[in-house]
Inverse folding.
């Protein structure tokens, strides 16, 4: 009896702590939403009022008039999808060679993959910026996509997943006369679906949200991405129009939050490296 | 398995290897080469030997940048790991409520750094922010979270912890799932209390996971840039000029390719050293466990 009561009390403590944790993470989002719905004069008068007295969508209209939201979002999405697809396209044959084939130099090739994990874009961006400038590729889609076409992490995860696929499947396909490309893309790829989905989602979310690379590879508006456009809403100096900035934030975050709600499990698996 | 042809493995690796050679290895070599020249991208580069290295090290600036970045990383890794582990232990329970809590914490990891940084600039505004209002309510002195040189770096670390704790949490949750339930039950039957069960059953099995989280969050925190550029632009008084921001500053604000490349080379060497240290610690620990 008393043990049961104690357990219930403990459960209540866990629930309260859990509620506090959720509040610490959800509240900032709510604040972003609340601020974006406030009219300018309310923000000026009482910036910390919990709710807008006369909620309105003016801030959103202003974001759309200041920033070509549609075009920037299209650039961001197309870039992130292109990167994700290229990574899968290249990681499959590379992972297949590393997981299934015997060849001289395999250890060196695998060491190269691991070495790439050690060199983040933050080390190479100055040189890549200069190289791409030489061939007039800055401010192009290529500058945003090509450097990420091969993912060391993606290759590594595809290799890990292929290790647990039995060799017999490949041998049988070879006997049936299937080419290596058919084996990789038609037979093995469907078997690796969960891994591939996770790799793609993690890559998509990262590159859709990325600020660093588009910032250093673009000097004008031709292929500007949404995070850059939204960051520009906060003009340096005083008098930041916070309702507009927060409206921009909502527009920027909504697609990933929706994607997250729909595919949380796959994303978590990819991020936790257990794809 | 035997490849059908000797060239097949290399053909399969070729597109990936070509990408990495072009965008990782060549740029790395180019950075080392460019670091020996003085070049503003407008006039011709001139060879200056190791002058760029001594220039970035002048007056201890390089060590200050390194110290700041390490300090920030230590705060971020320690904060996000302990909080992530605590939350994983707290939230590893069935039910939709706990699933919702887990989801909301992890969602911050998925949202853009830009959105997080902008949001926290507003929340931490010394006059109009919510935290300022809270301080006034409690009759505490005003804190310039982002304008006080002593507070700014800690503030950035705090915001980073908020953003990436969800990552540590999900990795720890995956680790917890692999701890056999039977072990817990056996320990409970032997009269072990919750802390003893954590200390002697869960934690030993969780240590490889912890090493993994430590490595990855160390690397992530060493790459911090967005948050610096949006929240503080490296200020006040350079208090938040972290390594990557310093490289960016040299090339895009000072137009000095040579010094930026010298900094990038040092940055790469530091990254390698940290990775090697972590690998050693991790190996020592696995060998120690086997013995």
């Amino acid at each position: 009896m008393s043990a049961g009561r104690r357990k219930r009390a403990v459960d209540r403590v866990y629930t309260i702590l859990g509620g506090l944790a959720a509040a610490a993470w959800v509240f900032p989002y709510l604040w972003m939403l609340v601020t974006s719905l406030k009219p300018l004069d309310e923000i000026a008068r009482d910036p910390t009022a919990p709710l807008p007295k006369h909620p309105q969508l003016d801030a959103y209209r202003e974001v759309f008039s200041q920033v070509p939201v549609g075009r920037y979002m299209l650039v961001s999405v197309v870039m992130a999808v292109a990167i994700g697809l290229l990574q899968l396209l290249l990681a499959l044959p590379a992972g297949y060679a590393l997981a299934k084939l015997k060849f001289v130099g395999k250890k060196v090739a695998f060491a190269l993959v691991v070495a790439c994990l050690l060199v983040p874009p933050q080390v190479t961006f100055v040189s890549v910026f200069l190289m791409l400038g030489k061939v007039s590729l800055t401010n192009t889609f290529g500058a945003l996509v090509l450097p990420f076409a091969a993912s060391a992490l993606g290759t590594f995860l595809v290799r890990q997943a292929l290790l647990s696929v039995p060799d017999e499947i490949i041998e049988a396909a070879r006997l049936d006369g299937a080419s290596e490309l058919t084996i990789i893309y038609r037979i093995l790829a469907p078997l690796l679906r969960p891994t591939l989905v996770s790799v793609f989602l993690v890559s998509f979310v990262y590159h859709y949200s990325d600020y660093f690379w588009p910032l250093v590879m673009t000097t004008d508006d031709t292929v500007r991405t949404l995070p850059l456009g939204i960051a520009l809403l906060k003009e340096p100096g005083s008098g930041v129009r916070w309702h507009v900035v927060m409206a921009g934030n909502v527009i920027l975050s909504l697609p990933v939050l929706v994607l997250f709600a729909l595919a949380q499990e796959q994303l978590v698996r990819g991020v936790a490296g257990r794809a | 398995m035997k490849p059908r042809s000797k060239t097949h493995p290399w053909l399969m690796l070729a597109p990936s290897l070509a990408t990495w050679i072009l965008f990782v290895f060549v740029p790395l070599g180019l950075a080392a080469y460019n670091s020996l020249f003085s070049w503003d991208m407008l006039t011709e580069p001139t060879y200056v030997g190791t002058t760029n290295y001594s220039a970035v090290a002048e007056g201890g600036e390089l060590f200050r940048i390194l110290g700041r970045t390490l300090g920030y990383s230590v705060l971020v890794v320690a904060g996000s790991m302990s909080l992530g582990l605590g939350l994983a232990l707290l939230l590893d329970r069935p039910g939709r409520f706990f699933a919702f809590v887990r989801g909301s914490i992890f969602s911050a990891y998925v949202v853009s750094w830009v959105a997080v940084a902008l949001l926290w600039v507003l929340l931490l505004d010394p006059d109009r922010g919510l935290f300022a209002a809270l301080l006034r309510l409690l009759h505490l002195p005003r804190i310039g979270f982002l304008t006080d040189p002593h507070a700014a770096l800690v503030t950035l670390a705090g915001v980073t912890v908020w953003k990436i704790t969800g990552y540590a949490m999900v990795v720890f949750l995956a680790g917890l799932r692999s701890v056999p339930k039977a072990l817990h039950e056996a320990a409970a039957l032997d009269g072990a209390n919750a802390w003893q069960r954590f200390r002697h059953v869960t934690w030993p099995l969780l240590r490889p996971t912890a090493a993994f989280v430590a490595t990855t969050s160390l690397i992530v925190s060493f790459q911090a840039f967005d948050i610096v550029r949006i929240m503080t632009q490296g200020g006040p008084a350079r208090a938040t000029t972290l390594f990557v921001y310093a490289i960016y500053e040299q090339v895009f604000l000072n137009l000095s390719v040579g010094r930026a490349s010298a900094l990038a080379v040092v940055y790469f060497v530091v990254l390698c050293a940290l990775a090697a240290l972590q690998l050693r610690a991790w190996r020592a620990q696995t060998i120690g466990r086997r013995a």
Remarks:
- Chain B is about 75% helix and 0% strand.
- Chain B has one domain: 50-290.
- The mean pLDDT of chain B is 89.
- Chain B touches chain A through 88 residues (CB under 8 Å).
